[in-house]
Write a structure and sequence with these properties.
With 556 residues, this protein is an alpha/beta fold. Helix content is 28%, strand content 25%. A nine-stranded mixed beta sheet has the order 4-3-12-11-13-14-15-16-17, sandwiched between helices. A hairpin with a 3-residue loop joins strand 27 and strand 28. Bound molecules: p-coumaroyl-CoA. The site of p-coumaroyl-CoA has 29 residues, from helix 7, helix 9, strand 15 and strand 16.
Length: 556
Amino acid sequence: MAATTTINPESAGFNPATKTFHSLRPPIHLPQEDAPISVVDYVLSIRSASRWPDSTAALIDSATGQRIPYSDLLKRHKSLSYYLQHVLKLSRHDVALVICPNCVQVPILYLSLLSIGVVVSPGNPVSTGSEFARLVELSGPTIAFATSSTAYKLPKLRLGTILVDSPEFESMMTHTFDLDLNLGLGPTQPSQSDVAAILYSSGTTGRIKGVMLTHRNLIGVVALCRSSAVAAGERASPAVLLYTVPLFHVFGFIYSLKSVALMETVVMMPRFGLDGMLKAVEEFGVTDVAMAPPVVVAMVKPGSSERYDLSSLKSLVVGAAPLGKDVIAAFKAKFPAVELAQGYGLTELTGPVSRVLGPKESKKWGSVGRLYGLLEARIVDPETQEFLPPGKQGELWVKGPTTFKGYVGDPEGTIDNMVINEWLRTGDLCYFDDQGFLYVLDRLKELIKYNGYQVAPAELEQLLQSHPCVADAAVIPYPDEEAGQLPFACVVRRPGCILDERSVMEFVAKQVAPYKKIRRVAFVNSIPKSPAGKILRKDLRKMVLAPLLTTSSSKL
Ligand SMILES: CC(C)(COP(=O)(O)OP(=O)(O)OC[C@H]1O[C@@H](n2cnc3c(N)ncnc32)[C@H](O)[C@@H]1OP(=O)(O)O)[C@@H](O)C(=O)NCCC(=O)NCCSC(=O)/C=C/c1ccc(O)cc1
């Protein structure tokens, strides 16, 4: 890390007077805040300035090869919007749950719901019935959109559940209604301050939280993504993107909007598999892939990708969790022509905060890039709350128009802890170097990242404690080369009870989505706690994990 004395604050974008980091990217202009436009109006206005023809493929289904050109996407969006508004009678502020794997219908559904002011609330289709019940309780949807393989898990809603993989849904998108192409939304026209989406994020308390994002927030991130595309320079042909990241989390959610704005072709894979992804890259000439670190780990394994022609590939945008330097080195050696662009983002900031841009910046191994144009940042000492200069580590705080509106049903409580004078506390331990590159070192908040998904230890601890043979339990992250971290349970058995590792894991697995499963168990005599009863996780990590790991304990 650079020493503070050698740092020129200006080259890091740091203002010593305000102790604030400013973006080094070109400024970005957003529409007037009171302009009556939705994020869809904004996306479509950018799209209409694109130089690519409407015959460009908007969406490709990797399994069937079905291609939907932009001309058709727009027609489908108009028809579906009409149907939702005039037949189903959905209106501004209604909430729609969307429980679907990645498929070509979802971006069209998002556009249509957002354009008529319906709040889109996407959830993970592998969640359990009780997890869905909690989402419904939080966001109060009137309708759900799901697939035939997920719908059975959803509670009954006022307007029921529409299956997006049904012939009926296809006809909602393709029926030629007597359309006034300008939908004439009148009073249903969303305003920028309206909530546009509720995304779900794991709370450290174990209760899932609904993160409210406004149309203004989404307009902000579409503008950020567009500025990156402009900075990256013109392409000879439209970019062909493949998302391995799910459309129900912020990374995939905002990418589905920005791809329409930039007229990118998106290849959809319903379920991730490395071979399926590489085959799709070869078959559809994919240029860019959005992914979480485990996919990079899989790609660098010897023999994993050699039989595919990946020459179309220009860049990988990697976010959702840290990427190890050894994996970056292996990737660079194996794919020297492919840019590995790390990014950093979080749901409460509508996704992107920083990213690496272009081949020169991608040489900064381990950095998650520079701040996006609309954002400011501070590095704050967690003990003293002092604002720190480049080269010093502290909690990252971020300010900008993409800061979320609040958590559903918790207007004051949680947001007050997270947002201080418009500054969002990220809960991540970071530093900026002398050129404004951001590095994420650790998480201050108690969350495990499994395959780029957040897992709250508290949620699993509550489940474990409900087992009749468990006297006490704590869950900590266990480092794993492929998944990043695994949920690891430390369990105190009740005297006289027989309880083994397998039964602990099965007990939890039955009640949670697969990514939250406990994947290792240790039996201990007690869980170290503070006098106030708080689990001393650092002590537990040292006590339980250090003997199990051959790597240095600083990695824990
Ligand atoms: C492609 C991954 C890395 C691996 O996929 P996988 O191999 O299918 O594994 P999963 O983790 O999805 O699945 C876990 C378990 O669920 C199972 N599963 C799986 N899909 C099924 C199924 N449809 N049916 C039934 N069982 C199943 C799966 O089999 C497995 O079961 P098990 O055998 O117990 O391990 C996948 O995990 C993944 O995409 N993770 C990324 C998550 C993600 O996007 N997180 C983003 C959060 S938002 C964020 O951080 C924003 C960052 C950001 C950064 C920069 C920006 O510019 C903007 C934003």
